[in-house]
Specification:
The protein has about 120 residues and is mostly beta strands. The protein has no helices and 11 strands. The strands form 2 sheets. Strands 2, 4, 5, 6, 9, 10 and 11 form a 7-stranded mixed β-sheet that branches. It has a 4-stranded antiparallel β-sheet with strand order 1-3-8-7, with no helix packed on it. Strand 5 and strand 6 form a beta hairpin. The protein starts with a strand and ends with a strand.
Length: about 120
Amino acid sequence: QVQVEESGGGLVQAGGSLRLSCTASGGTFSDYDMGWFRQSPGTEREFVGAISWSGNYIDYEDSVKGRFTVSRDGAKTTLFLQMDNLKFEDTAVYYCNRVRWGAWEAIWASWGPGTQVTVSS
């Protein structure tokens, strides 16, 4: 299994922006549909957004539509999550994983360390 590592999190005021990155080691995720997930304390990990292996298809969880943008670089070695107009309820640890398209479920059993996003109101 490819190992992933997320980065780019931090503390930001409501209305601000952050850009998260996800990179791979021990392999590549260039041929996989990839997604972002997040988890807040006391809640289950939830789907945020995903991009197909080709980059031609993108989908989002309803609460982030119009504010978040998933993308991947041309070499498909890095996955991004641009987060704009952040809200307090976006506070969570964010993870990337291979995604089962349509079901919006993570495929890999092992998760990266995640990156903490904290939005102050």
